[in-house]
Design goal:
Strand content: 5-15%
Organism: Deinococcus hopiensis KR-140
Number of helices: 21
Shape: globular
CATH superfamily of the domain at 38-163 and 328-400: Periplasmic binding protein-like II
InterPro entries: Bact_solute-bd_prot1, SBP
Pfam families: SBP_bac_1
Helix content: 40-55%
CATH class of the domain at 38-163 and 328-400: Alpha Beta
Order of helices and strands: HHHEHHEHEHHEHHHHHEHEEHHHHHHH
CATH topology of the domain at 38-163 and 328-400: D-Maltodextrin-Binding Protein, domain 2
Signal peptide: 1-30
Protein name: Multiple sugar transport system substrate-binding protein
Length: 454
């Protein structure tokens, strides 16, 4: 693109010298800016944006830092520079809350879906900007939009980094034992039981019940929703201890305690330990985020038996019920107190555009930065993106058609703590019904104190 641009400028150099005021941006770059939905002419040149974010080593983020940093494509197109803050994940939520209420340091922020309701009122509504730039919001999963919208119906963020849950499994084990890939949680347990009978040195399924940032809730809420239960009702009252909730929760705990098809140490496992079971060949199945696909193809991350030997399918549903799994999304928005909201919008449009996201998701030139993450259906179904990622983007799109997000309530951090501790207690022996009832009372007190109801 840069070489082509130079040829154009050489051809019309004299004309530009006379009529330079008619074109402040070289023609080649103006066309490229248009493909990303950016404004031509660099109206915000010289602006420096500060982006509150974590996890710079995540493949998607590492690539996008290069695309928006000093000397990057984004800077050449807009004249805008962007400083990515690499806040530790554990400190990010609190830092966002402080910035939203009392700060004026950052312009742009990305957050985990369930955090948002606590500070969405301090985010800039984007509806008019979305309409003006004709951004197709129907190209995003409903769960992603819900998590990016405030209670008044204002979209305050565009989906940025998102993950459906998928079922990863050992293809060689399934082929050897002539097993079908399970589509329900009930079939997962049956299949895991067969695997352990035939291969006693391997866990049929890797799971996580430890207390760590709510990670032990991911499979649980999928079972709960699939069985027709819910966490909160429309008024914000806890309903996870209903008959359907008890049934789904008992099933989740039985995977460990009754069926024993997972590592007994799963009571202490979070995502890193749980994923390591399949990465290191100690488990035949694992339900986790689709971005792990890149790790299964990395010889530095897996044992030889696992390398290039992992299959995937949409995360299981509930037998006789709905297939509704949790979809994690990081919306990207602009603080109301940003000094540069218009320049910030250019950045938001660029990194969330399907064109940029496809460029990142299809790039496997640096294994450590390979990342199949993409947030639009058109991107997930793109042939090049799927060719680069073994077809998992299409499977993710299928899972996201019916996926849900966590409750968008400002009290979620407190509720999550109650839920994840309770799950761990049940996994270590506490009675399911009794514990769920106690958890419901605790959540009820939280919701009343927050004013959701009396």
């Amino acid at each position: 693109m840069i070489k082509a641009d130079r040829r154009v400028r050489r051809r019309i150099g004299l004309t530009l010298g006379i009529l330079g005021a008619l074109a402040t941006t070289p023609p080649g770059l103006a066309q490229t800016a248009a493909t990303y939905g950016l404004k031509s002419g660099k109206p915000y040149a010289g602006t420096q944006l500060k982006f509150l974010i974590c996890c710079a080593t995540a493949g998607q983020f590492a690539q996008m830092i290069k695309l928006t940093g000093e000397g990057s494509e984004f800077q050449k197109l807009t004249g805008i520079t962007v400083k990515w803050e690499n806040t530790p994940y554990e400190a990010l939520q609190q830092k966002i809350l402080v910035e939203a209420t009392t700060g004026n340091t950052y312009d742009v922020v990305a957050w985990v879906d369930a955090w948002g309701e606590a500070f969405k009122s301090q985010m800039l509504p984007l509806n008019s900007r979305i309409a003006a730039d004709k951004i197709n919001m129907k190209d995003y999963p409903n769960a992603y939009i819900e998590a990016s919208t405030d209670t008044a119906g204002n979209i305050v963020g565009l989906p940025f980094r998102g993950h459906p849950l998928v079922l990863f499994y050992r293809k060689d084990v399934f082929n050897e034992l002539k097993l079908k890939v399970p589509t329900t949680w009930q079939d997962v347990v049956k299949t895991a039981t067969v695997i352990q009978q035939k291969k006693p040195d391997m866990a049929g399924l890797s799971t996580m019940y430890g207390v760590s940032a709510g990670q032990n809730l991911f499979s649980w809420v999928s079972m709960l929703w699939g069985n027709g239960g819910d966490i909160l009702d429309k008024t914000g009252r806890p309903v996870f201890n209903s008959a359907k909730g008890v049934q789904a929760t008992q099933f989740y705990i039985d995977v460990l305690r009754k069926n024993k098809v997972t590592n007994a140490a799963a009571t202490t496992f979070a995502e890193p330990e749980s994923s390591s079971e399949i990465l290191q060949g100690r488990a035949a199945m694992w339900v986790g985020w689709w971005w792990y696909w890149a790790r299964f193809a990395d010889p530095k991350a897996v044992t030889p038996a696992v390398l290039n030997n992992i299959g995937f399918a949409p995360a299981p549903g509930w037998a006789g019920g709905k297939t509704q799994n949790y979809a994690l999304i990081w919306p990207l928005g602009i603080f109301k107190n940003s000094k540069h909201p218009d320049a910030a919008w250019e950045f938001v449009k660029y990194v969330t555009s399907t064109q940029v996201q496809k460029k990142v998701a299809a790039n496997r030139s640096i294994p450590a930065e390979a990342d199949n993450t993409i947030v639009t259906f058109s991107g997930m179904n793109d042939p090049k993106v799927n060719a680069a990622n073994g077809g998992i983007p299409k499977v993710g799109a299928q899972a996201l058609r019916t996926a849900r997000t966590l409750p968008q309530v400002k009290t979620w951090a407190e509720i999550q703590s109650v839920l994840e501790v309770g799950i761990n207690q049940m996994a270590t022996g506490a009675n399911v019904k009794t514990t769920l009832d106690r958890m419901a009372r605790d959540v009820d007190a939280i919701q009343k104190r927050a004013g959701y109801y009396k």
